[in-house]
Amino acid sequence: MSGAAQETAPAGAPAAAAGRQGSVFTQGRLLLGLGLAMLAAMLVVTILAPLIAPYSPSATSPDSLAPASAGHLLGTDSIGRDVLSRLIVGGRTTLLITVTAVLIALVAGLILGLAAGYLGGLVDEIIMRALDVIFAFPVLLLAIAVVAALGPTVPNLILTIAIVYTPAMARVVRAPVLSVKQWDHVEAARSIGMSEMRLVLRHILPIVVSPILVATSLTLSQTIFTVTALSFLGLGPPPPDPNWGGMLSEARQFMELAPLTVIGPAAAIVFATLTFIIIANGLREVLDVGSVR
Amino acid sequence: MTRFVLGRLAWMAAILLGVSLVAFVLMRAIPGDFAIAAAGSQRVAPEVLAAIRRDLGIDQPLTAQYLSWLGHALTGDLGTSFVTRRPVLGELLSRLAVTFQLTFVAAIIATLMGLATGLAAARLRGVTDWLVRLWNGLMLAVPNYVVATLIVLLCGLYFPEITVLGYTPFLENPLANIGSLLLPGLALALAVSVTIAENMRAAVLEVASQDFVMVGRAKGLGRGAILRDYLVRNALTPVITAAGLKIAALLGGSILVETIFAIPGMGQYLFDSINSRDYPVIQAIVLVAAGIVVLVNTAIDIAYARVDARVQM
After folding, report:
1. A60 found inside a domain
2. Alpha-carbon distance A126 to A170, whole Å?
3. pLDDT attached to residue A16
């Protein structure tokens, strides 16, 4: 759709750039390390959520809209539930939907992009034109329409997000495949009679790995945005399970009385988004991938 | 050029057709009986349901339904709201006007902020550059509805005398109208201004390293003249393209911001329709909003091709 020509990602050997500046701690590695550390922290908290959370996320208490205290580090919400516990447990729902959906979009995009780029011709036309129609919708608008039609359940949310982000993934995969398939080593492999399947797996797929890694982490950050935005609009996973977008939206009514009820989920959303953006930027420099989008 | 434009327009028509198909299929995919949704209640006499089916044409085959719906949409009949029982088009147009206004205010704020910070980062370098880039990096991670919520929170806490929520129509009080759009505009603008600033910074750095700037400096042109006539002018073309694409995306982004600031635009209309399961309205908004984005993108493509001779035609 965009007029600006999409750069064909240079398919350089991974890690070729790592030692470029002589030091182990190039900016890219530093960023990647920071991002991965943030991701690890998030994963540990998410996986161990029931053990870490000081209270049950749905346990109410008469002490509503309480400020931060030793008993409730982030205070309580309008019906006396512990905000910190809800944040910790709510991350599970939000991150589960995000990660599963992006993985599905990744696999679908990989298959469609490889098929379109490698087979070319009519297959390419049909796949890319169909995806262009999905691409024409603003992401959030399409997601809202699909969830509103199908109903807000966790599987539907995952399916929706996967549909919405598949075209972008397919585009990222297709561009390098188009150029790589004409390279000499692919031609050579074909001329010695290598099967098509093996050719794609051995010689085409590895070239796509770097750009797809960067695109995946960028998509993860955008998906956090979309998932929490849907929950914010009331199209998130159904209650009583907490989730970050829903918490932010519920808290708005009384936020001036208990600012932490808003600041908590807002900070969690920003932290998660930032994590994936930092990883994407780190990966881009370490893997020496040009601009992916 | 003519061929390029015609090709683009034909392509646009094809995409719009696809968009309409998606909008149609989605609203037929809702679980349960569409007629019951239209009646607004489970307890309706079977004769009434049959009448509603006939009215809405649901008893026809799907292709006939789609063609008839598309035909009506093309002539401006976007259906009737389940809730108000009035045509969707009139309400949608007045909402759209508000959203356009908000988008316009946001675009101006984003452009001013983006150009200023991008230029400052590229010319001053050093600490300014570092701060601008840090700010940009952070802002990319803050969704616009979080910005909007935090703005409302901060204003409520520290400036309780300011009315933050709500909207004043332009004809009623032009000044109050712009005032009521400033904060939501800012919330929408931040992410876009980051893109503009990054593009501006890169473009100015790129231009500044070229020979003709050195020549200008060597022949004794003042800093102001070089900045104005050489740097900004030459840097602007790529920035405008990037900004155009981003501003088109603002339309989608305004859904949440309008809801938070109680601005009666298309986004809030969509939000309300979702809550009341007003499917014809949801369908109409999806169709119109996606249509606008397709139109704007096509316009940008064509404008870009006119400006930049290198674009393949």
Report:
1. no
2. 13
3. 38
Query: Who has greater pLDDT, A43 or B62?
Result: A43
**Is A233 touching B (CB cutoff 8 A)?**
yes
Please name the residue that has the structure tokens 């561009």.
Answer: A175
**Amino acid, res. B39:** A
Q: Say how many domains are in chain A.
A: 1
Q: Confirm whether A61 is domain-assigned.
A: no
Instruction: Check CB contact of B290 with chain A, cutoff 8 Å.
Output: yes
CB-based contact, A293 to chain B, within 8 Å: no
Task: Decide if A111 touches B, using CB distance below 8 A.
Answer: no
Domain-embedded: residue A25:
yes
B198-210 tens-digit pLDDT = 888 888 888 888 7
CA distance A286 to B148: 35
Length of chain A counted residue by residue: 293
pLDDT in tens, B248-288: 677 767 888 998 898 999 988 988 888 888 888 888 998 88
- Our CA-based measurement puts residue B36 at a distance from the nearest CA of chain A, in whole angstroms, of 15
| A221 close contact with B: CB closer than 8 A | yes
Of B26, B143, B153, the CB nearest to A262: B153
User: How is residue B143 annotated by DSSP?
Assistant: -
Query: How far does the CA of residue A235 sit from the closest CA of chain B (Å)?
Result: 9
Minimal C-alpha gap between B304 and chain A (Å): 7
Q: Record the pTM.
A: 0.83
Give, to the nearest 10 degrees, the angle between helix A27-47 and helix A83-114: 120
Tell me the C-alpha distance between B213 and A200, whole Å.
49
Report H helices in chain A. 27-47, 49-52, 83-114, 121-136, 139-150, 154-180, 184-191, 196-199, 205-232, 244-251, 260-286
- For residue A114, the enclosing domain spans 2-55+74-287
Q: Residue A230 belongs to a domain with what CATH number?
A: 1.10.3720.10
Q: Which two tokens stand for residue A94?
A: 């939000």
Report how far residue B149's alpha carbon sits from residue B152's, in angstroms, rounded to the nearest whole number.
5
This complex has an ipTM of: 0.81
Token pair, residue B132, equals 């601008």
Q: Which among A140, A151, A248 has CB closest to B149?
A: A248
Interface test with B, best of A233, A257, A262, A276 (most B CBs within 10 A): A233
Nearest CA in chain A to B271: A233
Q: Which pLDDT tens digit goes with each residue over B133-142?
A: 888 888 888 8
- Report yes or no on A63 lying in a domain: no
State whether residue B148 sits within 8 Å of chain A by CB.
Answer: no
